[in-house]
Amino acid sequence: MKDLVEIALKAGIEASEKILEIYHTDFDVYKKSDHSPVTDADLASTNILESQLAQFDIPIISEENVIPRYEDRKNFDQYFLIDPLDGTKEFIGKTGEFCINIALVVKGIPVLGFIFNPTEKEVLIGGRYTNEVVRYEYSSNGKFNHVQTLSSSISSNKKDTVRLICSRRADFERLKFSAMDRFQTKKIEIITKGSALKFIDLAMDRADYYLRFGKTMEWDIAPGFAILKQLNGSIDHLDYNKPLSFNKENLLNPPFIAYNNK
Description:
It is a single chain. The protein has 7 helices and 14 strands. It is α+β, with helices and mostly antiparallel strands. The protein folds into 2 domains: 2-150, 2-Layer Sandwich (Fructose-1,6-Bisphosphatase, Chain A, domain 1); 156-259, 3-Layer(aba) Sandwich (D-Maltodextrin-Binding Protein, domain 2). The strands form 3 sheets. It has a 7-stranded mixed beta sheet, sandwiched between helices. A 5-stranded mixed beta sheet has the order 11-10-12-14-13, with helices on both faces. A two-stranded antiparallel ribbon has the order 1-2. The model has no long low-confidence stretch (mean pLDDT 93).
C-alpha cells in the first residue's frame, strides 16, 4: 500500500504540473458528447494518471474514458476512480479552483482518497487504508513534504454559526432555507468554492457542511468520502442520512450533505 500511495502521489503531482502549465496558456475548449466542456489539460492529466496507475493491474474508472459496463464493473473487488480535472469550468474561468481526484474503492467503499490542488501545490491524502489524513505540499520538481496530520474537528453542533460551503453557481436561497430548517436556530455562513476543493476545506475545518442539490458523479466525491470517513465524517444522502453508495449502475449521485465531524 505504501508503494501505491507513493506512486499515486507522484502521478498526481506530475499531472498537476501539466495541468498548471496548460492553465497558463491560451488553451482550446472542446465539447464532449454530453455537451460538457473538456480541455487539453483534462486529456493530458488522464494520460499521465492512467499510464502510471496501470502498473497495479487494478481497473480504472475515469470521467474522461469509456465507463465499463455495469455487468462487468459490478464484480470489481477494487478499482481506481479518478477525475483527472475536477472543476473544468473553474479551469476555463481562470478561478484557480480546480483539482485532481483519485480514489481507491474496495468492495464498493472508497478507502483511500487523494485531492490535489495544483494552484496551491498541496494534496490531501487519507482514508481507512492509511488510517490517517495527511497534507503534503509539493514543488515543480516533484518533491513533496509532509506538512501536517489532520484530526476530526470540533462537532458542528457545538458551534454558534454553521459554515456552509457550496458551489458559486449554487441556488443560495434554496441552500439557506434547507440549512436553516436542518440546523434550526443556528446562524448560517455561506462559503463558496469550486470543485472537490470543498472537501479540503471541510477536512481542514474551514467549513462545517457541504450541501449539494445539483448534479455530481461518483468520481467527484469518492476521495472526499474516504478522507471525511477517516475524520469521523461522511457524505450522506440528504434525505435518508445514510452514507452514499458507490459503483452503482448509474454513477450519478443523489443530493447529499458532507461533513467532517457532526
